[in-house]
Amino acid sequence: MDQFDLVIFDCDGVLVDSELIAYTIFTEMLNEIGLSLTLEEIFDICVGKSLATCLEIIKDMFGKSVPDNFAIEFRQRTIQAFMIDLHPVQGIHDVLSQLKLSYCVASNSNYEWLQKALSKTSLLPYFLGKIFSATEVARSKPAPDVFLYAAEKMGFSPKRCVVIEDTPTGIKAGVDAGITVFGYAERMNPEKLREAGACIVFNDMRLLPELLKQPNHP
User: Fold this and answer.
1) CA-CA 20 to 30 A from 173: which of 53, 96, 132, 182?
2) Number of folded domains in the chain?
3) What tens digit of pLDDT does each residue of 70-124 get?
4) Is there a single domain that holds both residue 100 and residue 69?
């Protein structure tokens, strides 16, 4: 018997290689309004968090809010960049085409963003009717809400699910949902993912089908 019934994928950094694009634009826009941070600092501050949370952190750091149209312009610029530069995470098409378990995507990103990102990378056909956004629940990650919502909608107990995440924020959400979490560490420090509670950490998406078969997960 398989240990898991459902694989819940995060989107940004797990299905699509979007985080570097988005954080580069975010850094540029902050610098344009005189808030000087490096790309590395932004990645450390914001990775895995919603845009609203990131903007609150920036406000607390600098004591000033960004302009009212900042979030809208950020999304517009990022989506434009996605249409040119966005690629699927290496190996994910192969993984999804051979995965025998049910699967879905659950993300802090809004539904429009998810649709565009998955469409651009030709991943949308895999996830039709199986896309869950934190905008549909009360709290975004690191709260567990979106993972619990995805498991419920897909019809599986959290104990029979596994989350694939690439940030400590997302891993905490999975752990707090009572779900086994695998950490994908292509861009993130593996130790940070382990510290957050990932029971397995791997850096090549093509390894996932075999990892899911291993019987020694908690």
Assistant:
1) 96
2) 2
3) 999 998 998 899 889 999 999 999 999 999 999 999 999 889 889 989 999 999 9
4) no
Domain, as residue range, for 193: 6-16+87-213
Q: Is residue 78 part of a domain?
A: yes
Q: What is the per-residue DSSP string for the chain?
A: --S-SEEEE-SBTTTB--HHHHHHHHHHHHHHTT----HHHHHHHHTTS-HHHHHHHHHHHHSSPPPTTHHHHHHHHHHHHHHHH--BPTTHHHHHHH--SEEEEEESS-HHHHHHHHHHTT-HHHHTT-EEEGGGSSS-TTSSHHHHHHHHHHT--GGGEEEEESSHHHHHHHHHTT-EEEEE-SSS-HHHHHHHT-SEEES-GGGHHHHHH-S---
CATH (domain of 134): 3.40.50.1000
Looking at the fold, whether 103 and 178 belong to one and the same domain comes out as yes
Per-residue pLDDT of 159-187, as tens digits, reads 999 999 999 999 999 999 999 999 999 87
